[in-house]
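Notes taken during the Thursday session

The instructor put the following on the board and asked us to keep it in front of us for the whole hour. The protein is Golgi SNAP receptor complex member 2. We were told not to look anything up and to reason only from what is written here. First, the residues (93 in total):
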Amino acid sequence: MDESLQFNSSLQKVHNGMDDLILDGHNILDGLRTQRLTLKGTQKKILDIANMLGLSNTVMRLIEKRAFQDKYFMIGGMLLTCVVMFLVVQYLT
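Then, after some discussion, the predicted structure tokens were revealed:
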């Protein structure tokens, strides 16, 4: 009977821990969404200022294309980092 109570208590602690992790993840995602909206607004303002300064549409397209390409470099770097971390874990275990 005592073992069952300890097991139930442990399961309850794990359940509460998982709830906390999910809540933290949710809060992090909300923060990232807020940052994304802020950055989009900033990007729009920068593009408006650049248009006021007289930058050509060609230059504006090149800047946007560069940002698009940088996103793929970032994703590739993240994947490469994950693969390296996986290989290190596999090697050490």
